[in-house]
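The methods section describes the discrete structure representation at length, but only in general terms. An entry of this sort, consisting of the sequence and the corresponding backbone structure tokens, reads as follows.
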Amino acid sequence: MSEFHALRRDGTPWQPMFIEAINAETCIGCGRCFKVCTHGVLEMMGMTEDDELVAADDDEVERMVMTIAEKGRCVGCEACVQVCGSKSIALIAAADVLAA
């Protein structure tokens, strides 16, 4: 499959873009992406000074970062990337996911 397109309500084609990765180095842990995702894809985690991911309420947390908890639940709406001020979210075209 080389292309995958859905249709918008007005009939114009739209290609879903699924979440692929979040750059933990640039993510500021603001939570805006989490708030707009209604599908349970994302999870806030803590990061230690050794760059290890731990539970958000762990005593060793130096800073917060967003992680992908359930990649398969992404519907490709791109709301998360639209609100990400640090441009830390990478997307992948639906056609590339379905071809794999």
Q: What stands out?
A: The mean pLDDT is 92. Residues 12-99 form a domain with the Alpha-Beta Plaits fold (CATH 3.30.70.20).
